[in-house]
Predict the 3D structure of the following.
Amino acid sequence: MGANKNMVRGTIFAGIYVLITIVIPYMTFSWISQLTVQEMNLTMEKEKITNIYFWILAFGFLISGTAFFAYSSPSQSIRRGVFCLIQIFLNCLYIWSYKFSGATEIEFILVDLGTMSIDLSQMIMVILGIYFLTIILKTYDLVDFIVNRNKIREKRRRGE
Amino acid sequence: MRTSRVFRLIMRIFLMVCTISMSVVSFLGAMSAILILSNPDNIDVNGENLEGEFDITKPDELNLTLPFTIKNVGFFDIEDLTIRIVLHMEYSHINYSTPGVNETVTETIFDKTQSFDNIKSGDSLDDSFEGASKHFISENIPDPLNELDRTQPVKFYVDISLSMKYSLGLLTLAVNIIDYKMQELSF
């Protein structure tokens, strides 16, 4: 019964991560690539938007996959600690992918007029800073799960 | 409660506060951008409003003014607002080595960046970009008597770059109007 519960939890979390890392960013970039500002159509370079979509999908699926394994693992298990840590590293790469795919420096072409650009690099750096703290926490979790392995198993056996 | 649990709890609360703050700042920043950009009256920096004296035969009287209005209807202050104007002049250069064959030359005759005050949320800024004769690049301005083919009109093009920081400096927005055709003059 516990295993089924874990699988359901893993699936739910994988679904949440698909929504957060793939669906919402994909819809956001689709929307801003066809934005109309001040009665002017803003167009993004097709090659750039394809590149952004590729990295969103690639890292999005990886993160969602690891989210399934992390959240379907028993609570306080080493397996969960390892997958949570892998997931955080993948999240960092996902955030960083926004930078190297050009998604942080979005440039629109104002037809017959010029360009408009939005630079989100600074925001990405702050988010990466928060992820760095999360890495510390997850590493600490993993060490704790390994060091207190016997205590955690004993508690689990007692049903606490 | 184990010390490790207390440490984890404190870290989790701290991370949650950071994540929620960033999410709120990002959301409000995006909302503000939509609010500001959706109404053309909010950022009124238009090449059509550019005025000035471009008669190169009177170098001391050269000047350039661009009045503009920016309304900050967003949730955060607009910071580090700068406007850069570059003025190009296209003219027919007299070619003395091959009489009768003149060449079209484009020179940058004006280049200035001006910073403006921060615009608080809800406020608007009515100001103007000012360029005096000292900001014109005199060495690029042709001698009207010896270098300029005065039978051909002189064309002026302007590049206007506007940049500002938003969402507590986390977001930089830049608008570049390139080669906006201004006016033609004959000397």
User: Anything to note?
Assistant: Strands of chain B lie at 43-44, 51-53, 63-71, 79-93, 103-115, 124-131, 154-166, 171-185.
